[in-house]
Design brief:
single chain; alpha/beta; binds calcium ion; 699 residues; eight-stranded mixed barrel; binds ligand C2E; TIM Barrel; five-stranded mixed beta sheet
Length: 699
């Protein structure tokens, strides 16, 4: 039911109740006043009749009485009249039926149920009563009056009710019309149309509600506008963001591609690197196995490359490597893979070759292209090459062994000064080292299979042993003694270097401690890899180990290569500073083979440089090496560093180094690396033994 209908009904009901009460009361009052008038009229008429008949009663004049009755009955309202004396009825007249019934005076209109109001009055003289009169009045007239009054009242009530209804309707319409406006406006808000305003009339509650509604509508409109604006902005941002994300994704894809390329290619020659090459060989193995085909794997190492680097500088060396790479790329088939494995080493994967003759076609082309002179600046250079070849599946059907075999064949070619060598089992017996990588080195570290050999360093002024270099070996239960070149790189690549170095340090510290207890106060040099140098907790580990022994830190020397430092110079410097701070000495190993700048050397707080053995060993025969050694000694001294020459293999080298002012020497001429027991023997017997000042005359 609508509010409007409720209002109309409510108002109508209340007003109808009030009116009904009013009209009903009015009608009652009207009826009562008619009754009262009847009673009064009847009583008066009866008394008047009694007075009129008094004399005739006293005189018992019946005729007069009957006349009086006839007279009374002329009044249309009188139904009958009777005069009663002391002895009984004296005269009577009127409606005979009514006269027959016993008389009983009525007191009110209601008791006159037979339609006749019976009234009586005494006939008295003084105080004595002589009789009484009985008169009956018709109540038809009053009845009519009452019915008329009732009708009129009902008509009045109905018309008033109709008026009330109409009034209520109009009033409710007036009230609800404004509510209607509010309702319509609210519906518009519900439909999402904000800002709609309604007219405000007056100051009553509805007007106040309208004002509040208008304010709300305006605020909603404002909020809606802001929301739409924000939505537009978000849409724009989203569109922008999507564009930026797409752009960034594209950039990332490009960078990823570049990174992937960098990770899989050599920066200098843009050739595939070792990782990509291994991947290609693995794929070749899979497809060759499937298709029952064979292929060849070649390891190439340039000859006479190092002198180019040393004499003409790294730029020249880089140029040669790039030139060789380009030439090799052109002389190989598209399906073959040429990779630079590092330094002057290359590898080639020759697909779909079955016989040695097939391979030889490519080998000859490769050799011819490499040995062609290279013009650089104003000079013409020539490099040679040593090639080792292993065949799949004849020599092996797995990647590691195949790679090992081609390497071993290449070394064999170098040793025999052949340009190329095909792998054969005799080569394996000779080297064996490559295959050692496959052995369980972790197990070896944990099971004390590693041992140290010590190579003395002799002071070139006093000819005394100043210290030793600890060199690790793997005492393999099946393969005998394996040299570090065969497993150090493997350890570095397989996350074993930290463990290995700690093991070596511990063994070296223990040995040094033992010698010190025997008053053999030698310094102990240990080789540290790039991985250790980049390890932030390495100095703490060294400190922890040092704490286990009583050797003073100043007797410990850590040998690090230039390459190890240049991997991440800042981190390396930080660790070197810490190690220095602990009192340990640091020396640069294989000096001359890397790219360290003088500026770094000064920052590094190193105590010594060790001239790489390749220069020292060749110094007797190669004047340029002699120059390099001398200038390195001068350079070291100018920087305030001690200089050690390693790889001293002859009396001539010894003499020359002494002459050049080199501080100490290490090499097979004085002693090969030997076990601790052998070392004790050596020191007793050798002219270089501690305290000895004899100049060696023979090895
Ligand atoms: P390196 O540090 O340059 O060590 C010197 C190497 O030169 C030793 O080879 C030594 O036997 C050899 N050598 C010494 N005097 C002469 C000589 O007069 N002529 C010739 N031809 N060679 C000489 P080794 O012991 O095979 O070690 C090879 C390399 O293995 C070491 O080179 C070093 O880089 C690495 N290495 C050895 N032990 C460890 C170690 O404990 N930790 C680490 N990280 N590397 C080690
Ligand atoms: Ca060394
Ligand atoms: Ca060295």
């Amino acid at each position: 039911m609508s509010f409007r209908l409720k209002a109309i009904l409510g108002i109508t009901l209340i007003q109808a109740l009030l009116l009904f009460t009013l009209i009903w009361n009015g009608a009652q009052i009207l009826i009562s006043s008619h009754e009262e008038a009847l009673l009064k009229q009847a009583s008066t008429a009866t008394h008047v009749f009694a007075s009129a008949t008094r004399d005739a009663v006293l005189a018992t004049d019946v005729g007069s009485l009957e006349n009086a009755i006839v007279q009374a009955l002329t009044n249309p309202d009188i139904v009958y009249a009777r005069v009663v004396g002391k002895e009984g009825v004296l005269a009577e007249g009127g409606n005979s039926g009514i006269l027959k019934r016993p008389f009983k005076a009525d007191h009110d209109y209601q008791s006159a149920s037979d339609g006749v109001f019976d009234s009586t009055a005494n006939i008295t003289v003084g105080n004595e009563q002589y009789g009484h009169v009985e008169v009956g009045f018709s109540i038809d007239k009053i009845k009519d009056t009452i019915i008329t009054a009732r009708h009129e009242t009902t008509i009045l009530a109905i018309s008033v009710m109709a008026m009330v209804g109409l009034f209520s309707y109009l009033f409710a319409m007036y009230l609800t019309r404004r509510l209607d406006t509010l309702k319509t406006a609210s519906q518009r808000i519900a439909e999402g149309v904000f800002g709609h305003q309604i007219a405000v009339h007056g100051t009553d509650e509805l007007a106040q509600t309208a004002v509040a509604f208008n304010e709300m509508s305006l605020k909603l409109h404002q909020l809606d506008t802001n929301r739409k604006r924000a939505e537009d902005e978000i849409k724009n941002l989203n569109a922008n963001l999507e564009a930026r994300v797409a752009f960034r994704t594209h950039q990332l894809a490009v960078i990823n591609k570049e990174l992937e390329h960098l990770a899989l290619h050599d920066a200098l020659t843009n050739l595939p690197n070792r990782t990509l090459f291994h991947d290609r060989v693995e794929q070749a193995i899979l497809s060759a196995r499937r298709e029952k085909k064979s292929f060849a794997l070649m390891s190439l190492d340039l000859d006479r490359f190092k002198p180019i680097n040393d004499t003409l500088g790294h730029h020249a060396g880089d140029f040669v490597l790039q030139e060789i790479s380009t030439r090799l790329t052109h002389c190989l088939r598209q399906s073959d893979t040429l990779a630079r494995m590092g330094g002057d080493e290359f590898s080639i994967l020759l697909l779909n070759v079955t016989t040695t003759e097939d391979v030889m076609v490519s080998v000859n082309k490769i050799i011819r292209t490499i040995i062609k002179p290279i013009a650089i600046n104003d000079t013409t250079l020539a490099v040679g090459v040593s090639i080792g070849i292993a065949m799949f599946p004849d020599h092996s059907d797995d990647l590691t062994t195949l790679m090992c075999h081609s390497d071993s064949a290449m070394y064999a070619a170098k040793r025999a000064q052949n340009v190329y060598t095909f792998y054969n089992s005799a080569i394996e017996k000779d080297s064996g080292s490559c295959m050692a990588l496959q052995f369980d080195l972790r197990h070896a570290i944990e099971n004390e299979e590693l041992i140290l050999h010590y190579q003395p360093k002799i002071d070139l002024t006093s000819h005394c042993v100043s210290g030793v270099e600890a060199l690790v070996r793997w005492q393999h239960p099946g393969h005998g003694l394996i040299y570090p070149d065969a497993f150090i790189t493997f350890a570095e690549k397989n996350g074993l270097m930290k463990q290995l170095t700690l093991k070596v340090l511990e063994m070296a510290f223990r040995q040094c401690d033992l010698w010190h207890q025997k008053n053999l106060n030698l310094s102990m040099a240990v080789n540290i890899s790039a991985i250790n140098l980049q390890d932030p907790i390495f100095p703490d580990r060294v400190a922890g180990l040092l704490g286990k022994f009583s050797v003073p830190a100043c007797y410990i020397e850590l040998e690090i290569t230039e390459t190890a430092i240049m991997t991440d110079p800042l981190r390396a410097i930080e660790n070197i500073k810490k190690l220095n701070g602990m009192g340990l000495q640091v020396s640069i190993d294989d000096f001359g083979t890397g790219y360290s700048s003088m500026a770094y050397l000064q920052k590094l707080l190193v105590a010594k440089i060790k001239i790489d053995k390749s220069f020292v060993m060749e110094m007797d025969n190669n004047p340029s090496d002699d120059v390099i050694v001398r200038s390195t000694i001068d350079l070291g001294h100018n920087l305030g560093l001690k200089v050690v020459a390693e790889g001293v293999e002859s009396q001539e080298s010894w003499d020359r180094l002494k002459e050049m002012g080199c501080d100490s020497a290490q090499g097979y001429f004085m002693s090969r690396p030997i076990s601790a027991d052998q070392f004790m023997q050596w020191i007793k017997e050798s002219p270089f033994g501690s305290g000895s000042s004899a100049v060696p005359t023979q090895k």
